[in-house]
């Protein structure tokens, strides 16, 4: 029953009729225990008559008051939720990947696993930065977050570097973050989705 429809119904109920009905409860109990029903019925009638306004007032109040303490998603959580909804769309082209070299410190000396634990969650957007001058891997693509170097795209996914070189617009979204068993404040794995933003066709090798 709708709350606004319930209020008139409660107000229309006569306290007399409610008291008459309420008096039957102690009377029936008295009859079960082989006591005089009339005295207990009158006792229940009087108590119900007095207590009816005390019952109706909080009931009406509870029906009229709307919750104002429903928590809203923070901008960060809303942004992450929107990103996860985006990669779930069948029309959006995305491919699974992960952050390699997460266990090593960044060039600036930042503990990547600790940083990922504190700042990276499912739905967090990551930047893909091409590093053509990388001596160890000429197809190197780095994952960055707010200027922090988190690691690299796995070497087996060379198509990502080639797509960036061809001018394709790509972005990365964190999809899964696994926490270590022993060092609980460290991320041991960050799975991502590589999202293709361009509309022009591209075939993954």
3D structure, described in words:
It is a single chain. The chain has two domains: about 5-65, no CATH class; about 75-195, Alpha-Beta Plaits (2-Layer Sandwich). A six-stranded antiparallel β-sheet has the order 1-6-5-2-3-4. A hairpin with a 7-residue loop joins strand 5 and strand 6. It starts with a helix and ends in a 9-residue tail after the last strand. It is built from seven helices and six strands, in the order H-H-H-H-H-E-H-E-E-E-H-E-E. By secondary structure, the chain is an alpha+beta fold. It has helices at about 5-10, 15-20, 25-30, 35-65, 75-90, 110-120, 160-165, and strands at about 95-100, 125-130, 140-145, 150, 170-180, 185-195.
Strand order, main sheet: write it out: 1-6-5-2-3-4
Instruction: Note the gap between the termini.
Output: 59 Å
**Broad structural category:** alpha+beta
Low-confidence stretches: none
Order of helices and strands: HHHHHEHEEEHEE
Layout of strands and helices, then pairs:
Layout: H1 3-12, H2 15-22, H3 24-32, H4 37-64, H5 75-88, E1 94-98, H6 112-119, E2 125-130, E3 141-145, E4 148-152, H7 158-165, E5 170-179, E6 187-196
Antiparallel strand pairs: 1-6, 2-3, 2-5, 3-4, 5-6
Features:
alpha+beta, Alpha-Beta Plaits, 205 residues, six-stranded antiparallel beta sheet, elongated, 41% helix, 2 domains
Quick take:
With 205 residues, the protein is an alpha+beta fold. The chain has seven helices and six strands.
């Amino acid at each position: 029953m709708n709350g606004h429809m319930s209020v008139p119904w409660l107000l229309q109920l006569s306290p007399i009729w409610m008291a008459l009905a309420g008096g039957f409860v102690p009377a029936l109990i008295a009859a079960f225990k082989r006591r005089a029903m009339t005295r207990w019925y009158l006792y229940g009638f009087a108590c119900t008559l007095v207590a009816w306004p005390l019952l109706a007032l909080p009931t009406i109040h509870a029906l009229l008051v709307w919750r104002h303490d429903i928590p809203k998603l923070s901008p960060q959580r809303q942004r992450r939720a929107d990103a996860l909804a985006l990669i779930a769309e069948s029309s959006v082209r995305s491919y699974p990947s992960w952050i390699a070299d997460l266990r090593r410190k960044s060039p600036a000396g930042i503990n990547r696993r600790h940083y990922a634990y504190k700042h990276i969650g499912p739905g967090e957007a990551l930047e893909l930065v091409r590093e053509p001058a990388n001596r160890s891997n000429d197809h190197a693509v780095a994952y960055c977050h707010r200027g922090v170097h988190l690691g690299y795209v796995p070497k087996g996914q060379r198509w990502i570097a080639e797509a960036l070189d061809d001018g394709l617009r790509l972005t990365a979204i964190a999809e899964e973050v696994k926490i270590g068993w022993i060092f609980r404040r460290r991320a041991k794995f960050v799975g991502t989705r590589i999202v293709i933003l361009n509309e022009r066709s591209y075939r993954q090798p």
